[in-house]
């Protein structure tokens, strides 16, 4: 399902590098939200592998990121560095924002905060 969604975004964006950036940043945000939710310990044991590895693993794409970076490298160093900094910076920021949103939605819990701090970050 995640891969089909990524493919659809790629089609809608005309195969541009922005499609890869979009899916990776939204995937990082979703992962942050999921980590906050899963850390509460109330989810089914198969929810974590299905949602994180299956769904978000199919949605995000390191291979396309690498290919896009390689293609942009042929156009000059400025575009390549901009793409790398944007992808990594926005990805980390989105993951942190997702953690904060998830914590806000499901309420702060000392046990969940400890699990996130120790296991996920």
TrEMBL record:
Topology versus the membrane: Multi-pass membrane protein
Pfam families named among the record's database cross-references: CRCB
Main location: membrane
Species of origin: Janibacter indicus
Protein name, UniProt field: Fluoride-specific ion channel FluC
Catalysed reactions listed for this entry: fluoride(in) = fluoride(out)
Family that this chain belongs to: Belongs to the fluoride channel Fluc/FEX (TC 1.A.43) family.
List of residues binding Na(+): 57, 60
Molecular function per GO: fluoride channel activity; metal ion binding
GO biological process: cellular detoxification of fluoride
């Amino acid at each position: 399902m995640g891969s089909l969604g990524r493919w659809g975004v790629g089609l809608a964006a005309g195969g541009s590098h922005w499609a890869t950036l979009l899916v990776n940043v939204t995937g990082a945000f979703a992962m942050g939200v999921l980590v906050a939710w899963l850390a509460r310990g109330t989810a089914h044991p198969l929810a974590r592998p299905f949602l994180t590895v299956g769904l978000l693993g199919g949605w995000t794409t390191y291979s396309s990121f690498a290919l896009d970076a390689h293609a942009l490298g042929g156009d000059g160093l400025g575009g390549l560095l901009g793409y790398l900094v944007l992808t990594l910076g926005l990805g980390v920021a989105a993951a942190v924002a997702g953690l904060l949103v998830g914590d806000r939605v499901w309420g702060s819990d000392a046990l969940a905060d400890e699990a996130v701090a120790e296991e996920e970050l």
